Amino acid sequence: MTLGKPIGNGHPLGAVIATRAVADAFARGPEYFNTFGGNAVSAAVGMAVLDVIEAEGLRERAATIGARLLRGLRHLADEHAAIGDVRGVGMFQGVVLVTDRTTREPDATHAEAVVEHAKSRGVLLSTDGLEHEVLKIKPPLVWGEAEADRLLEVVDEGLRSGRG
User: Fold this and answer.
1) Mean pLDDT within 151-161
2) What b-and-e string marks burial along 54-87, b requiring 16 or more CB atoms within 10 Å of the CB?
3) From CA 97, how far away is CA 99, in angstroms rounded?
4) What is the pLDDT of residue 163?
5) What are the structural domains of the chain?
6) For residues 96-125, b (16+ Cβ closer than 10 Å) or e, as one string?
7) Which of 29, 93, 150, 153 lies 20 to 30 angstroms, CA to CA, from 19?
């Protein structure tokens, strides 16, 4: 698995995560090389980010707040026929918008309208999915209950405001 941008908390940093077997294969084959690999400053930044994640309990926060978001989004699905599916892990959530729950016809227009409504209220979302019908929710790990509740309120408003 490759990781990038957010792991350096603003500092350009990337990482590769692999099983021991995959990592050992690099030793038997062509040597892996990149221009910036092993940079001491980047390594220190990466370690500092990991230290903050641990010290501030951000993994636990992501699990707790992510579960709150997921429950709230599933509650919204009970109220809005436009929601065809809700899924997510931790702080990374997706809400599939459809024109009809039975046919699961994607509704990119409504998704974009919700994103624009949220933006007008100071909440940044984006769309994803093959038809851009998925509201992509990926807030920072430092979010708390108040921020999660605000997001849910704004998404609810956007869904109620119609299909744009």
Assistant:
1) 96
2) eeeebeebbeebbebbbebbeebbeebebbbbbe
3) 7
4) 54
5) 2-55 (no CATH), 58-160 (3.90.1150.10)
6) bbbbeeeeeebbbbbbbbbbebbeeeebeb
7) 93
Which residues, 6 or more positions from 144, have their beta carbon under 8 angstroms from its beta carbon? 61, 65
pTM: 0.82
In which element (H, E) is residue 77 found? Answer: helix 58-79
How far from each other are the two terminal CA atoms of the chain, in whole angstroms? 38
Report residue 55 as tokens: 């010290």
| 20-24, 64-68, 114-118, 155-159: least confident range | 20-24
| Dist. CA 109–CA 59, nearest whole Å | 34
Split at pLDDT 50, 70, 90, the class of 162 is low
Reported confidence tier of residue 70, pLDDT bands at 50, 70, 90: very high
φ, ψ dihedrals at 136, nearest 5°:
-100, 120
